Amino acid sequence: MEIGSRLHNHDFIGEFTTSYRELSRGQSQFNVYEVINPKKKGKKKKYINSGTVTLLSFLVETEVSFLDYIKGGTQINFTVAIDFTASNGNPAQPTSLHYMNPYQLNAYGMALKAVGEIVQDYDSDKMFPALGFGAKLPPDGRISHEFALNGNPQNPYCDGIEGVMEAYYRSLKSVQLYGPTNFAPVINHVARYASSVKDGSQYFVLLIVTDGVISDMAQTKESIVNASKLPMSIIIVGVGPAEFDAMVELDGDDVRVSSRGKYAERDIVQFVPFRDYIDRSGNHILSMARLAKDVLAEIPEQFLSYMRARGIKPSPAPPPYTPPTHVLQTQI
Hints:
The protein is an alpha/beta fold.
């Protein structure tokens, strides 16, 4: 270890050697080191040392990973929210992002299936609450920004991504696309659940699939700033050809999202423009691996930033399962 002086452009003072084993003893008479300058030692007969270095404290920090928490039992809960606003186009028209095509998936169906299959591997129970926003609901035509796709607000859970797809297509037949496009209600919906379990045992991810036209930017920013204190992340998947400037702003990679002078405690939003991953025809995904990587790119770090800020360590992983050994009894 070399010691340099800060007084004159990092002049070399001297050196000493030690080891991890010695340092791990902590503060003791063994951890006091003479600093020797070989040049001075060679020139001066009376040279003893250039000072001493005393160890005051020694700490080993273990770097934990996202998977350490998953192995320790932290559960990831995905919620899906789908944009049912009129800006997506009339579902009866082929130009609509919600086009009800009997022969192939529409833009939303493709994005849902592709991204859903990626995230469901991380979801603990594969049961997804699935919500819609921006539609008029039967029978009375009230506008809702937070409705259960399966028609059951008490139990909006769908079984796997297939269940979400079925509920999406069923909703498409019964609701009327309307507006405005408000994100805040679905963000606050997930935030209510996230605020009830802050001990690191659960983490929530909201997947919003949208055409990117947003009406409540100020309220959404406020919701994101509040949610940044909670164990949750938001993935926004943009479908269609629109300019996604507002979504890029919410992503907050370049400028942290703020509301009324308060900045988000941590970055919790990841924006993925789906059109970057499909071919010209719009029917084929170019690379599922690249889509998977980009959709999940920021989740581990966002997850870890929450756990670190709260001082939550992963629980120890349970021992691997070993099947009981059957003793064969032989009868004579």
